[in-house]
Amino acid sequence: MCMFLLSLYTENRRVNGSFSLKEHYNSPLYSVMNYTDQLIRGLTTQNAQNVDMLFTETLTNYLYNTHPANLFGMDFISLAIQQSRDHGIPSYTEFRKYCELKDIKSIKDLSKIMVEGSVDKLMKQYKTWDDIDLLVGALLEKHADGAMVGPTMRCIIGEQFVRTRVADRYFYDIDEFSQTQLASIKSLTLAKFFCDNSNNITIMQKQAFLTLSKSNQMKNCSSFPEFSLQNWMELI
């Protein structure tokens, strides 16, 4: 489920408001000036929603909405599908072949890898499984074990991360820093980053990517190791 209604949280992680993307398209300065800390707390408190083909109307009816009465907007899914066709993005089944996943040769094969109830809907929209658009097929695929996405999407995401790193000759761990400097960079946590770059966040859980729990409780920002620039100081 893709939703764009973020809850705003106080310092002790209590909800004190909400933030709708529908009402704030193309207004990042307003968000930064008014809700930075509340949004950071919300992003580190709320659970991530499932990755699937269910999308909020904020994206399907009000994308890039600029009308003062919020009457209408564009459809993100339709645009994404059309753009992939315009740019010649291969079909879902072609990407499965690229990722060396099992070929789809029958409805039975398709049913084994798609979420329940989706195959009949797909076959009403496409003449054959080889016509399924990448975005549609990838989002309807059953999730891989231990992942939030299916095998095809996991393959694509992994490939993109590898290519982005390899193609960037200035990537931070490719002979740009000394081992001491690299160790300092790797010691910086997201929790500490939020503490140092927010307006007034004084407590944060150690593992900011994970929600609060008994093993991941909030700690004072001062308890996190400081990021030192000492290793970058030139000797005079």
Written overview of the protein:
The chain has 236 residues and is mainly alpha-helical. Among the domains are: 66 residues, no CATH class; 51 residues, no CATH class. The chain contains 10 helices and 4 strands. Strands 1-2 form a two-stranded antiparallel sheet. Strands 3-4 form a two-stranded antiparallel ribbon. A hairpin with a 5-residue loop joins strand 1 and strand 2. This is Peroxidase. Keywords: Oxidoreductase, Peroxidase. GO terms for molecular function: heme binding; peroxidase activity. It holds the Pfam family An_peroxidase. One of its GO terms (biological process) is response to oxidative stress.
* Strand composition percent: 5-15%
Q: SSE string, helix = H, strand = E?
A: EEHHHHHHHHHHEE
Largest sheet: 2 strands, antiparallel
C-alpha Rg, in Å?
22 Å
Low confidence ranges:
none
Distance between the amino and carboxyl termini: 57 Å
